Amino acid sequence: MVKEKVLVEISARHIHITNEHLAVLFGEGYKLTPKKDLSQPGQFACEEKLTVVGSRSEMKMSILGPTRKASQVELSLTDARTLGIDAMIRESGHIEGTNGCKLVGPKGEVILDKGVIAAKRHIHLKPEDANRLNVTDQEIVNVKIETPERTTIYGDVVIRVRADFAAAMHIDTDEGNAAGINGTAFGEIVK
Amino acid sequence: MVKEKVLVEISARHIHITNEHLAVLFGEGYKLTPKKDLSQPGQFACEEKLTVVGSRSEMKMSILGPTRKASQVELSLTDARTLGIDAMIRESGHIEGTNGCKLVGPKGEVILDKGVIAAKRHIHLKPEDANRLNVTDQEIVNVKIETPERTTIYGDVVIRVRADFAAAMHIDTDEGNAAGINGTAFGEIVK
Looking at the predicted structure, is the pLDDT value of residue B1 above 60? Predict the structure, then answer.
């Protein structure tokens, strides 16, 4: 029997922003400009970029919409080192105790006192996907990604189940490069 | 029985250079200035840096000595993307068919027509280490690296055996970050 595989998507560095911070950075009443829909329903990449300032350097990053309850910078540990920010590995939204940074927009600046993370690798699934793949919400699994030169099994992958998710594994650019992913890739859950 | 583990070392981007290219880049008769011995006997990081120029950007990289028979730039795939160079995943020295770049030094420039690679992950071992670990030269193994948030099993790891090697697994910064390595790490060979 051929085991079902999950699409692997590589997340480049990006920013989630609150309405309040958006107003400071781009001006009162500003609305994000959707550029491209993402695989997760309702999520989109925006035309807007911000400059993330660390102790060592700075970097432009795109905003992902819609706005959220907390601002958050998601980057790779390579990015974090380049910027000079000590980023913790966290699930999105779990930012208590993480480090912050300065965000610079066209109309203003914001100092985040927390929110810079390297995303913990995870798989988005609908409940019916989870049933079929025999996994449950918050379960930790291993995922094998086969490539010509850098086959890798990633452990510590968090399963996240929600009706409005689309089935996809998300890893960052370090993880994509470490596995030698070049183009479309799929992963097999191996417990 | 506790299985023996191998030290994992993370190689940052670096350059190996020929005597001929060294003379062009730094001037006739120039000698490399050792800065720090590396784990492999006879290998050392140098004070000298070069600018590697790609189609998209440029980056300073240290030279590792001693000089070699072929010039070679070893970088991560993250670096390669930043620079705009399509780097192939290759064992060190296996540069036929790879892409090149421009190197800029204080006294001159060199156009490499090949030699930019992302190193294929590998383990250096002495013959007695290989015997003890039950592996042979050029064997491909898997290595498990356990970390708090990003445990990873790397496949496609090449065993390299030579009397003048010191036991160490070498991975690049993408691979180190993808495994969440922070400080000293060890890997377990799992076949």
Answer: no
